[in-house]
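User: Just a sanity check before I run the rest of the batch. Below are the structure tokens for the first item. I only need the designed sequence back.
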């Protein structure tokens, strides 16, 4: 205790700070006892004004510390200046100045003084960028082609004007080009997309916190596209929220922000916003998280239905007659609106508290929205016309190898929307795990020759979903070259179609018409197994195994019907069709004696 008692002060630290009289009791004074202190301490600094000698000593110590810091900074600055001077000499050397002209000894160029990783040579980058602009960007116009090409050329021709944002922009375009490309576009892509993605992520903080421009939003939306098809959608969710907040800061969601802009810039700002809108709605629906952008907060016209001039042809595709055209970009924006309505009616908190009648009414309303959307599509682009073996060729800016690719992606979204409202149940996952289990139980009992103890789990609007699934799978088969991006972005629609056709065979095993789906199912199963091997996804592997079990049930039931020659097959009334599965007319709510009915008069919503 003796070490805690300086002779010059009687009051303990607590009493000294509170400026109260200390009684000096040992081992604790009265104040320390009241405040439950373990002991009195005497270490607080004195409030007395230091003497001249003490003040001078403190000043000298501060000056000495300051001089030491200045010397350290001077050494660091000298080192940096030496590095900058070396880089400038290297940049001004003849070998560096000929980089754009194809000098192999100086084929890689570094952002001067930044220490950023090198970019590939100009002659390698330019064809990749042009290919991206002619394919994916032609239907999802995130970038203005002329502006982007000029930016890339300026990077190589004017090295002293380089900056981190431009470097990140070129990296994200290169990553998108490799990520969304068709097979065979380049011989060895390897993990190039991942390398460029990592480059952009390394400067993401600067992209977000710097003065916001349209390019910043484009870079972040490019990152969202790169994460669009990932199993873990959390990065995409975070990035799309960031992009839309930055877009709101620029006023991209309003006409007012473009009033003083040139027509070309105003058009590009509008396209960037609608790209963000599409990604927001799609990622939201897949992850079952509320979208960021509210429809009520948008004051922009939709992309035009008709083109005006060559510039406005971006986003359009043309039919074989070279006259009939479809604004693909506008059609996708309209689908995004429907996706937002589906989230509101299926996954939102208010939807989960609705009655079965309300959910059925919402599903019917969304089905009408999908039919209205389809009615606005020119007949030359109908899925039935495209999936027909004799359908005419579709010509657009994409290569011949991928001419149906983007239309298949478009229709995969409509199929997914239709499946979601048919299987809409808040307890189900996106791949309908609860319904799948009920279907497996039912199919297993029927295949075993037992009277099923549960009702057939026929969803609402089943026949329309089965027909749409059949047409979609036929269209899918016409896309002969399928890269990883295409397989992932269409995977949900592919699985939904496969499950629907498989279930249709179980529900209608006596109907010979369903046997025609067997070849489609076998081909689709083969495609799914290829996808599982390519993606190495355990989730998709488990889905594939579940579908295989359903396939075994369907095959066994079909075999039993063929070999046993049943004369009175069990029929299932299809909700909303007015007919049973054999085609006989039924009054609403009426079921045949042998029918397998569903609870509540045939509605899955109960």
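Assistant: Here's the designed sequence for the first item:
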């Amino acid at each position: 205790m003796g070490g805690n008692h300086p002779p010059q002060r009687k009051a303990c630290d607590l009493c000294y700070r509170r400026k109260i009289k200390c009684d000096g009791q040992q081992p604790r004074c009265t104040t320390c006892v009241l405040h439950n202190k373990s002991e009195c301490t005497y270490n607080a600094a004195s409030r007395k004004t230091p003497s001249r000698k003490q003040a001078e000593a403190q000043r000298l110590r501060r000056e000495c510390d300051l001089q030491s810091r200045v010397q350290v900074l001077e050494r660091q600055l000298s080192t940096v200046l030496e590095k900058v001077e070396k880089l400038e000499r290297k940049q001004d050397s003849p070998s560096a100045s000929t980089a754009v002209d194809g000098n192999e000894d100086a084929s890689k160029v570094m952002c001067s003084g930044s220490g950023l990783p090198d970019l590939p040579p100009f002659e390698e980058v330019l064809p990749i960028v042009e290919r991206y602009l002619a394919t994916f960007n032609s239907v999802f116009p995130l970038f203005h082609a002329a502006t982007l090409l000029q930016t890339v050329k300026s990077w190589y021709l004017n090295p002293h004007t380089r900056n981190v944002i431009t470097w990140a922009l070129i990296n994200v375009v290169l990553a998108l080009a490799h990520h969304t490309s068709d097979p065979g576009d380049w011989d060895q892509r390897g993990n190039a997309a991942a390398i460029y993605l990592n480059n952009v992520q390394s400067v993401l903080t600067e992209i977000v916190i710097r003065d916001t421009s349209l390019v910043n939003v484009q870079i972040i939306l490019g990152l969202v596209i790169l994460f669009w098809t990932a199993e873990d959608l959390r990065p995409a969710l975070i990035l799309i929220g960031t992009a839309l907040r930055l877009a709101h800061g620029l006023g991209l969601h309003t006409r007012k922000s473009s009033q003083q802009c040139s027509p070309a810039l105003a058009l590009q700002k509008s396209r960037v916003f609608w790209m963000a809108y599409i990604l927001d709605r799609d990622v939201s629906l897949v992850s079952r998280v509320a979208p960021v952008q509210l429809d009520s907060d948008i004051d922009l016209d939709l992309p035009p239905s008709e083109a005006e001039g060559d510039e406005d042809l971006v986003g359009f595709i043309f039919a074989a007659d070279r006259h009939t055209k479809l604004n693909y970009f506008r059609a996708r924006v309209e689908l995004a609106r429907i996706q937002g309505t589906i989230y509101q009616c299926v996954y939102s908190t208010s939807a989960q508290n609705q009655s079965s009648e309300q959910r059925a009414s919402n599903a019917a309303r969304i089905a009408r929205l999908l039919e209205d959307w389809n009615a606005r599509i020119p007949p030359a682009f109908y899925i039935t016309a495209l999936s027909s073996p004799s359908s005419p060729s579709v010509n657009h800016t994409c290569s011949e190898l991928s001419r149906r690719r983007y239309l298949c992606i478009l229709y995969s979204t409509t199929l997914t929307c239709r499946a979601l409202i048919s299987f809409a149940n808040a307890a189900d996952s996106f791949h309908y795990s609860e319904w799948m289990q009920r279907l497996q139980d039912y199919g297993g009992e029927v295949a075993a020759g037992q009277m099923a103890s549960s009702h057939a789990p026929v969803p609402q609007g089943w026949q329309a979903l089965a027909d749409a699934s059949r047409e979609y799978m036929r269209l899918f088969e016409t896309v002969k070259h399928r890269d990883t991006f295409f397989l992932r972005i269409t995977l949900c629609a592919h699985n939904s179609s496969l499950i629907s056709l498989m279930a249709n065979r179980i529900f209608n095993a006596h109907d010979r018409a369903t046997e025609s789906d067997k070849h489609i199912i076998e081909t689709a199963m083969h495609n799914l197994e290829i996808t599982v091997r390519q993606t190495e996804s355990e989730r998709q592997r488990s889905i594939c195994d579940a579908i295989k079990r359903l396939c075994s049930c369907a095959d066994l039931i079909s075999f039993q019907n063929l070999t046993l020659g049943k004369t009175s097959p069990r029929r299932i009334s299809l909700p909303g069709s007015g007919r049973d599965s054999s085609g006989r007319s039924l009054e609403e709510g009426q079921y045949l004696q042998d029918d397998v009915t569903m609870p509540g008069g045939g509605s899955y919503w109960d």
